[in-house]
Amino acid sequence: MDVFNLAVAAAPSFVASSVEFVEALTIVLAVGTTRGWRAPLVGTALAALTLAVIVAVVGVALVTIVPRHLLQLVVGVLLLLFGLRWLRKAILRYAGVVAVHDEELIYQREIAELRAQGLRKAEWDWVGMLIAYKAVLLEGLEVAFIVIAFGATSIAALQHAVWGAIVAGVIVTAVGVALRQPLTKVPENTMKFGVGAMLTSFGVFWAAEGLGTAWPGDAVALFGILGSVLVVSWLAARMLGAMLPQGARVEARNV
Amino acid sequence: MSKFLRAVWDNTYGLLVDDGALALGALAAVAITWLFAVVATQAAEQLGGAVLLVLVCGLVIANLYTAGQNARRRAG
Predict the structure, then answer these.
(1) Residue A122 has what pLDDT?
(2) What is the pTM (predicted TM-score) of this model?
(3) From residue B63, how far is each of A53, A88, B3 by CA, in Å?
(4) A185 burial type by CB count under 10 A (0-12 exposed, 13-18 middle, 19+ buried)
């Protein structure tokens, strides 16, 4: 296990995947608590299998078939789009323009909906299985994208990114099983902010390399890019704080 | 099934595009950097990355300024 791939593939993949697994866990917990565990666990396992196939097919094909410069450009642009989206939303949440993601509220809402649907005990719970499958697959698609994007530079990087996501999944699942409740204490917005900044930085780095430009210091330039993105994001958050009156913030938070 | 596929598509599209102006801005920044890389002299080639970084940082500030203005207008 080399330090470079640990820093640029495994660690970002671990943090980003953790956030997505927390969101998927909330739904699976709600289904299991209200309708029994067998069907949602089967749905979760099937979704995990689907995602493994997606990463194996798309990830390995990208790394082995697509020329390096083209791959850097495509992955760089995708990372840039993906990272800017996370960064923007996290900053808007800090400023109170967008409501903060509330796992407890989502959990309670999901439980109320599932209870309203009812369950006949004699039948296999297709509804529970499909809800869990859909939730894990949809959140997992983001994980698959992150793993492929961070691992796209080489097979070694892909392996590190996969391990980062697997470890995140195991930890989140273990904590969720132990607590039997949504992980509301996880600082999701701060994690998304950090991941958004990392994704954006990697996106800038690889897109520029894909266009044939060289960075002074090569990969070391990533730290400078990340620092610049963090400073600009902090300035943007301060700017929004100054622009919006306190009343507007409170109103937005209550949406 | 079609609902499910629609949800998968929406989610996949949503992975990359939350705000259309931001996504278009990012693509424009990459296009400008590409133009710079094509016309730049060999000495200026190393500045291509810096150009993209500056454009992206400017884009973040401009997009969030607009979002802030819209939020302030909505709040009345």
Answers:
(1) 58
(2) 0.77
(3) 37, 8, 32
(4) exposed
Give residue-wise pLDDT tens across range A155-187: 888 888 889 999 998 998 888 888 877 777 777
Residue environment code for A56-73, b if the CB has 16+ CB neighbours within 10 A, otherwise e: eeebeebbeeeeeeebbb
Q: Where along chain A do its domains lie?
A: 3-253
Q: Does A47 touch chain B (CB under 8 A)?
A: no
SS3 of A116-135: the string is: HHCCCCCCCCHHHHHHHHHH
pLDDT in tens, A189-207: 888 888 899 889 999 999 9
| A63 lies within 8 A of chain B by CB | no
Contacts of A243 in chain B (CB under 8 A): 65, 68-69, 71-72
Q: What is the 3-state secondary structure (H, E, C) of A61-93?
A: HHHHHCCHHHHHHHHHHHHHHHHHHHHHHHHHH
CB-CB contact of A202 with A8 (8 Å): yes
Alpha-carbon distances, residue B12 vs A142, A176, A207, A252, B18 (angstroms): 8, 26, 21, 27, 11
**Residue among A95, A75, A19 nearest A207 (CA):** A75
Chain B residues inside the 8 Å CB shell of A88: 18-19, 22, 60, 63-64, 67
Contact A81 B16 (CB under 8 A): yes
Please report which helix (H) or strand (E) contains residue A15, including its range.
helix A11-35
Tell which of A204, A222, A231, A255 to mutate to test the B interface (max B CBs under 10 Å).
A204
Size of interface A-B (CB pairs under 8 A): 137
Reading the block at residue A123, the tokens are: 């039948």
Query: Chain B contacts of A76, Cβ < 8 Å?
Result: 30
